[in-house]
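idk why but the lab printer keeps eating my pages so im just putting this in chat instead. protein + DI6:
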Amino acid sequence: MQVDRLWKNARLATMAGQGSGLGLVDKGLIACRGGDIVYAGPEAEAPAFTAPDVVDCAGRWITPGLVDCHTHIVHGGNRAHEFELRLAGATYEELARAGGGIVSTMKATRAATEDELLASALPRVDALIAEGVTTLEVKSGYGLERAAEMKSLKAARRLGEVRPLSVTTTFLGAHAMPPEAAGDKDAYIGTVCRDMLPAVAAAGLADSVDAFCETIGFTPEQVARVFEAAKAHGLPVKLHAEQLSNLHGAALAARFGAQSADHLEHVDEAGVAALARAGTVAVLLPGAFYFVRETQKPPVDLLRRHGAHIAIASDSNPGSSPLTSLLLAMNMAATLFRLTVDECLAGATREAARALGRLDRVGTLEAGKSCDLAIWNIERPAELVYRMGFNPLHQRVWRGGMGLDLPRG
Ligand code: DI6
Ligand code: FE
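predcted complex ->
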């Protein structure tokens, strides 16, 4: 069979199948045609392929391209000064209540043009790309009014035009209260549902809809209204749930068949059971846990016992997780939350793809999926989780293209 490119003499962690196994192949081959994988498995069992380009991997490891399934990477400004205030004793919640926090990023985001938002996000996105990320989720939620939310989502979409990267976008209008809403949360949610969300959906700017269910965010009843509106526009939902307290957002997300419930430090067993039953992915965000010095850990044992899907993401954002390394997020998930190496690797590939509703296209090395690969200079997969601040990526492949022959950029 004629294909475009072959990678041979590689060790594969295909991540295919269920559970925490890595789907290891010792002497593996990947064949790509038209940007898709047509074969990933043992060389010895492969059909006879011919290709104009054959890459000898010299025994290197190949994993699926990494998937960062939860970021707020498009935003104006930064919050380094609030970081200093927190070091002097202020808490994340106090700063938010005092009009800082998300609202201070809102002001900088509203003041920026779409081009400026794109330009300021690119160095952060490039840091993720340099570590093998090939699929990136980006949320809005720092505009908090229609035009600025749409501007942010357009900038997010453009990341996927100027970089060799698959981008999914999430509308997070219900992230925080804009000052002009004068504290009337029900009225603001009405604007989100009747004005912002329909416009975003009509423009095709969002692949899903998210909300922040929290005392400093929105109540479960208000989130349910957003979810109903999302369903009416045919958009899947996800939820920031149980980050700082337990408002039973996980159960709510499960009831709506959400793609994911994210954070979950304060989730209880009923919430975990509901997630597992619904197939809603539990997305753990150890960068935020670390950076706000949270002490309550997500109940990893309960998640395991109930068979919940567990993903890991950077939560890259200016306030609670100024993190642009998915490798470091994996290390933190292992060290802080006690996830296993296999869980961390699945969490940043297959399970992250599931959390985006993209498991049909990315997240594992299997025929029929996009040929998105990360090729590593490592001797065992644990090295991807074990090191801190070191990047062992040898090469990244997106839709079958590598290095300088990337289709765009
Ligand atoms: N939870 C978070 O950790 C981020 N958003 C959210 O709902 C933080 C956003 C920020 O502080 O800018
Ligand atoms: Fe977040």
